[in-house]
Amino acid sequence: MANFSKSNVPQFSVDVYQNEYLPEGAGEVNAIVTVTATGGGTIGTAVSAPHLFSPGQGPSAAVAIMVDCSGSMDYPATKMRNARDATAAAIDTLRDGVHFAVVGGTHVAKEVYPGGGRLAVADATTREQAKRALRSLSAGGGTAIGTWLKLADRLLSSADVAIRHGILLTDGRNEHESPQDLKAALDACAGRFTCDARGVGTDWEVKEVTGIASALLGTADIVADPAGLAADFTQMMETAMGKEVADVSLRLWTPVDTTVKFVKQVAPTVEELTGRRTEAGPRAGDYPLGSWGDESRDYHVCVEVPAANIGQEMLAARISLVIPQPDGTVQNLGAQGLVRAVWTDDMVASTSINPQVAHYTGQAELAQVIQQGLDLRKSGDTDGATAKLGRAVQLASASGNADTAKLLAKVVDVVDAATGTVRLKAKVEEADEMTLETRSTKTVRVKK
Amino acid sequence: MSQMPQLSACPSCEEPLESGDRFCGACGYDLSAVPERPEDNPTITMNGSVPAQGVPAAGAYPEPPTVPPAGTGWPAPGPNGAGGSPAAHLPTDLQGADSGGSPLPPDTPPPPGAPPAPAAGVRFDHPPQAAGHPGPPGGAEGHPVPPGGYAPQPDGYSAQSVTYQAQQPDEYLLQAPDPRVSADPAAQAAGAGGKVCVACRAGRVDDDGYCENCGHAQPRERDHMEQESGPVAAVSDRGLRHHRNEDAFAIGSTALPDGSPASVAIVCDGVSSATRPDDASMAASKAASEALLAALPRGTHPQQAMHDAIIAASRAVNSLAAEPATAREHAPHQNAPACTIVGAVVTSGLLIVGWVGDSRAYWVPVDRSAPPARLTEDDSWAAQMVAAGLMSEAEAYADERAHAITGWLGADAYELEPHTAAFKPDRPGVVVVCTDGLWNYAEAAEEMARVVPLDAAAHPLHSARVLVGHALDGGGHDNVTVALVPFPAVPQGAGSA
């Protein structure tokens, strides 16, 4: 379905960072794979604006905004008002020609705009109509997010577009359907559109929101203060408008008798991809990377190859990028990275750890110990929580992850960051704890 | 060990032989028809046993014990007249001049009790200096001696050359010239195997040189290289412990303006801790040999030409630093590509060596009763320690820092000091130009001489293979590269029978 003219497709590059030297008998090969997409013109540091296309042009795209309209959105009343304003701001950010729809979500999903199972095409008139329709949004009812996603999927698939994206806002727990229903909806939608998820206030479940974003290859965040919603929605929509290529997959080839231990995204956030492999021919598998604008992400690939003799060299993995086509073939994006294994008796070479691998191993551990520490804290295990969060403080400090360090400091009193000595705070704002949990997977890149 | 040249092989089909075989087990070649080639067993000392065998007189051609005494036609002992021990390598026997014309510091001190031999070894352009010359090898600025500074030595090479030429036929009688010497088996396998992986024999080989089934890297062109150019030959091998060959060589022959022949050999060793060492060594060897082969026919003095060639090689390596690294080279610390260099130019009367780093040149006379010599002084930690008198040679080379080099070609070299030295050997011999992958297994000049086949000057390619085989037998811990340049230079085509 994707039909780009050549100039519109960004250039992808693959860079591999690894220490390829292994001691005798070893077989575990670690590599950090940096995937970068760049178009002509400005190379931005972050995806903030659609600059690969001249104004008014861009890849065909469809966006569905799912706004929580459950009864709790009226407590406080500012929440519903801010959600309306945020949705309006997001609509204003839509590029002309983009297909869009607004879905109001309760225990059922209903089309707010344009209705009739269709998508509107953005222009001045439809934007005005959509914003007028938002005024009719009122709170009342329950929460069944799976139904919202299924409606969004139906609407998004009604248009023949390259990029399909959803924005989901909730303020409460998914109480009016079973977790299995949500899981089934996510499985049905995975790979069909990408979706960012936001929790507003503090009455929602972090793992539900991060789970939605993770399954649909989008971002998750907390907007504790409803007043911040408009800015966040605008930024999210700008990012969505910056996407140029959908459904990119990382294709990993490994030699015979090799085990793929894990594949995970490690920047900008930690995202486990190992279990999302789909086989792609002999000794190769594809891992979904979602849609791409002008951006760069890092992946940690770990494979176990059969050990070979000193002086031998082998290819432990070949990494390429592909876009699956509807007819079952793939479009290869050209870029390729080689992960090598070279056995040496030079102890200095084989024992040194590649700085990128070391850094991201630490960042992945950081995300893990924050999660474990918060879980232990909730279950009342003070000692366990102190140990885990202390380790988190130590890792965040050593790796220069200042944002995470700041969030941690709101949950624990840091005695000594270098040794990870901390005390749990007696009183922690719920918003601070939820922010830490939601953002625990955010990583920083290696200082260059 | 499949990369190894067969060290004890049938001269007809190269089938490995067992000791005591009278016929080749593969082709039935009558092994008694040719004299056994003692040089095929480089790990067995030959000349080293000379004192025990009681070789009659100094200056005599030592008779290898494995050669049948009958019918080999060894010449009578040469008119050396010296009564001293032939094996002693005396520092005063061989001195060279560095680029500034000052003599090199002496080599290893003579073994105690060894009577000094008269000046019988190689000659050099400048009078021998006192043994205790204090200057470091690279102390003088790198200005070559002007051509006019090389006065012919009346007692030198010319008198000896008569003897040399008279000996040549005998040399050939000793040989079983074998035109069918097969190429390296690994290289053959790579060529014949085509696209099938040499490791698993199941997968096809991808465009980037890896098997699409088992992932193993395929033998590369540089894993084993051999070349013969006129009288000069060189062999380079990846060795047994390194995953790629970072050594390179370039050889060639040309003629001076007066029509006399000149041979050129350059050997470079990529610095492993730097980025793209294989590119560096290849660029340096190519640039240096091209510079020499262009300068010598124009009449540039060989020593000046060698100096200029090292500068040219240095520029070639420096320019690599500006090029972007290939996608798969993401070393944690990107160092500028770097390599060592050693080169030799041999003319009808002159032997020039030039070097930067720890690759070496050795002089091995055809007449093994004359002392061999190391012609270069390493730019290495160990050599500096020894030169400064802080450690004995044994101590210094046992240290783990021994091989840290203090001079190299590359953009991050502190200061380029090309060392060159000129010699006027008074007798025929062969110059062994090699990387540390070889001399680690034959460090002293005497050790090197023991592993250089007796017919090295006449059969340089075969002998270079033997030397590489010696390093592989010893463990092949590094890439091995050796070039052999016979002295004096002979016109093209006359070198190998």
Automatic annotation (TrEMBL), chain A:
It comes from the Bacteria. The lineage of its organism: Bacteria, Bacillati, Actinomycetota, Actinomycetes, Kitasatosporales. Gene3D superfamilies: 1.20.120.1690, 2.60.40.3670, von Willebrand factor, type A domain. Residues 62-245 form the VWFA domain. This is VWA domain-containing protein.
Automatic annotation (TrEMBL), chain B:
The lineage of its organism: Bacteria, Bacillati, Actinomycetota, Actinomycetes, Kitasatosporales. SUPFAM superfamilies: PP2C-like. This is Serine/threonine-protein phosphatase. Gene3D superfamilies: PPM-type phosphatase domain (3.60.40.10). Transmembrane segments: none annotated. Residues 231-487 form the PPM-type phosphatase domain. It comes from the Bacteria. Residues 35-163 are annotated as: Disordered.
